[in-house]
Every structure is written in C-alpha cells, then in structure tokens.
Structure prediction request, 249 residues.
Amino acid sequence: MFEPNLQPEAILSPQAPTIENGGSPRYVLCFFHDVLSRLHQNGLLRPVGYVASEIGRNPIYELQQPGERVLVVHPGVGAPLAVGFLEELIAAGGQKFIVCGGCGVIDRDIAAGHLVILTSAVRDEGTSYHYLPHSREAFPAPAAVAALQSVVEGRGLDYRLGKAWTTDAIYRETIQRREQRLADGCCVVEMEASALFAAAAFRQVTLGQIVYGGDLVVPDGWDKRAWHERADDRELLFWLAVEAVLAIP
Prediction:
C-alpha cells in the first residue's frame, strides 16, 4: 500500500565520501563499466575516491582534461542503489548531474544505438515515492535536457526526445504492462530514471539522462541486439554526457 513519506528530515542522512582535492559540482553518472575501465586504463580517468555498498566499491574518477573539474561515477544498478549513491555525491557538493546508460526498447521504431534524451519517466518503482508526492511520472531538470539537446544537435547526431518506463522488476515486463506503457507514451524501459529524477528534484539539484537503444522488448520475442557490445555507442554517450554536464549553466 502506498504511504506518503515526505517528512524532510530522515533518521539517517547521507554522508559525503572522501574525495581527493574535494568534490565537484559536476558529475557524470555512467552505467558503462567497460567504458570507465577502458578510459581509466588509458589514463583519462584517475580514481580520487569511492562510494561503496555491500557489493563493493564504485570508484569516483576525476576526468583528466583542462578546464572545470568533472567527476565520474558508476551509479550501480537499480533505483535504490543509484539514488543512494546520488545522495552521497550531493552531500559531497554535487549540483549538476548527467546520467548516461543503455535501455530496453519497447517502441520498435527505435534502432539499436539510437540516442534518446529522456523527458520524463513513468514511476513503476518504489524509491521515487519517498522523494516526491504520488504522481504518474517524474521529470528531469529542464536545464539538463536543454544542455543534452544542445550538445547532441551540435554534433549533428540523430536523436529523439522520449519517455522512459522505470521498473524494478526486469523479469515482470509483461505483455499487458508493455502495452499499457506504450499507451502512456513510453518508448524505452530501464531501472533508475524516475527515481533519479525524483531524488534530484527533492534535493534541488540539476539532473538529466541520455540513453541509447538496446535490447528489443516485444511480445513476439526478446532480441538482445548485442546491445552491450556497442563499444563506440557507449563511449560516445559518455563524452556527450561530459559535454552536457559542462554546458549546464
């Protein structure tokens, strides 16, 4: 049963992780472990701290580039962990966040690798309801969406604006629920966006998300479409996120 849980103060407050040379207002939350590992090995990312859970440590990387400091973190998988890490990074001074990752595709028109800038997400998970009043959807910050659009259009890349279906239960994406989400206007499915949008709104920070078309989630058969092997697409998304987080006013 849904019970509102919007008292501002909680028993346990997020603690800022220790970060070499302090935190940064700008973060990229990247779901691609392979991209982060490769950039680290190539000397472009330098570990300066970590966030941690019972499954281990997720490094906080400093992006080695001239200009304003950007920190990069893998936010974990699933809404509760991603929001927990987001909370800790906000406590460390984070104010502007761009999230990049893959997604399942429920709209057949979206090709594998196609870019989607999220404009909202249907809240079919539990975490967001502890941050915002009950509603059908959660929304990213307009400034973050505008920054992503500006960067993608500046590169001359094809993209679409789209609504995500955020769910906790990857093995309960039923035919009926998919049809309902299509009717809601969703084109992709993933596990974190609505919760990240809600937590960011509650904490009054700026956050947006860009994804690329991955596996095809359709009634006549799931198609993996080698979504996790698209190394060029994955690294492109990372650099788009970097450009976008630097473009947020």
User: Anything to note?
Assistant: The chain has a mean pLDDT of 92.
